[in-house]
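Subject: NFACT RNA-binding domain-containing protein

B.,
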Amino acid sequence: MSEPSLEVIEKHLSELNVDESSPAIIRQKQLAAERLNKVKTKRDEEIRSIEEEHRLNFKRGELIQLHAGFVDECRQYIQSFLDQSMDWANIELAIELEKKKKGGNAIAKCIDLPLNLKENKIQLCLSDPNVAQEKNKRDISSLKSDSESSADSESSADSESDSNSDSDSDSDSDKRNNKENTKTRKNKNKEQNNGFPVMIDITISSFANARNYFDSMKAAESRQLKIEKGAGIAYKNAEKKIGQDLVKNIKKENAMALNKNERVKFWFEKFYWFTTSEGYLCLAGRDNLQNDMIYFKYFGDDDFFVSSEIEGSLKVFIKNPIKGESVPPSTILQAGVFAMSSSQAWNGKINTAAWVLHGSDVSKYDSKNNLLPPGTFEYLANKKFLPPAQLVMGFAFYCLVDSESTKIHANNRIHREREHGLIMSLSNEKRALNKLKVTNVKEKTCQNSLQPEETKDQIEEAGLGKTENSPSPSSSTSPSPSPSVGRGKKTKLKKMATKYADQDEEEKELRMKVLGSRKSKGKSQSPQKGLSPTKTESIESKEDMERKKRTHQQTIEGYLLDEQSSTDLATYFDTMDGLVPKPIKSDVIVDMVPVFAPWSTLQKFKYKAKIQPGLAKKGKCMNDIINYFTSRKMDNTRSDTDLDWPQEREIINTLRSNDLIGVFPINKMRLVLPQNKK
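Prediction pasted inline below.
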């Protein structure tokens, strides 16, 4: 790591006043230093490559001038084959055969194969006199060293005994012969590898070829001067850019550390949602249970229900704030596009149609008044099919403003409503379910009134304790004496009685089975003793189905008795007053709220991106969207509402793509950005 890199990084860190010992800051510091070193290394490599190119071109030009006559002979040699209209493959074959001959043509031996006759070029191996001189010097020095070693070996051989002299002389002579053979082979290889490869254009003379190399050498020199001259400026620009990225990344790390407690999501963000271009709220469940939740808690007779016959389509509930009025056709069409965006029509890129029903024509009960399974509805009228629509969606950000800005937008909305004489209110009233609500309330009241009578039997049967007047198990007529119950125990028994007051006999029996505190009664066990395993499994599956039905029924009753949904609907317009698609100069922005909606509903949004059917993953597309939003032109003066503002940019930089992809009901898509199609 170079010193300039460290100085720049330390300067930016000192301006931020951050804890440099934290792991996140150390990681960002290392990444910035690596980027700076890469910039410097890349510049040095470019200069070295240009210098090497300059040296080689100069050497090639000199060799062509030195062997000008031989180069022209090589050109004429190849041209003679071409004049005979010989096939290029046959030309290469002829040159290869000539090379294999012992006393072959010297010109053919200097031509490298394969030929590049398509561009009228051939490669020659031209001998370099400087390299030959160096080789001669090395050969002379090696011969001297060999002679010295042979003299030493002869003197050592004379000093040995006479009995071993013959064998030693034979071995020495063999060694010398082997050395001489290896020397000759090395010299031959050196002579063959003597040449320096030079590319020649056969259509021009040797001197013209040399001039081309000298011209390219001059061009390399001028390019090197430009790089060296602009290296300082380029390095400073890189330092500035890397420093800005370092500051941005560190601020993002700090913001993510400070904002660990994410904002509380609005009630409609639990579902898939969007608002149409006319301002109508559209909700869709993420699964069947959520569809039931929307129906029972937020859907009313004045609302509309939109879906499609295609597999995977969403069930979209349109909230109608104006009683007795129908919603605009464009709103229904947009809801239809939203419903089909998660279906097979999106994956198959099919333009198809959705259908719509009035809220009073949708029910969760069949003709026999039985509750339907989760996600299933009974349609009481004929479906009205919509015209086919093109599936074009979009991703956008609402700007969440502070309370003061929300009040301003709320006053403007109320003023517009009064001008047009509109009364806006969301309701979940369903006339068909009013009777069911009243019935549930009456049942609860009756159960509470019967608590004192039922409590004794339930506590006794559950084995929770006995009161003073409770009869013994063996006799139902004669009471048996029992010890008095303490004051604390009476309070405990009262709490237990209140807790288990709503239990019926069947539920109590099931709880006992789960707890394993006692066996089932004889009536329930005796028929199963002689049953086969298949019948036992069928009985258990029926019990599971009954248990699921009871659980579903209890969930629905909870929805009907929940008063929070009415509060959510009553405060919906106040909530939406704080969500601004394009903020004005007086707005104070505190956060961004993501939304996935039909493209036609997002035309007034400041931050939006078009999405079409495709094969890209939603995580990658979300990263591309954030990069696009954070790289656009920014207005630091906050005067142009169409340009990005610094406060908005800072908030978007703190967002994580994994927290945003939950708004997508689809997994594959194609992102379409201005001047850049993904």
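The chain has 23 helices and 17 strands.

T.
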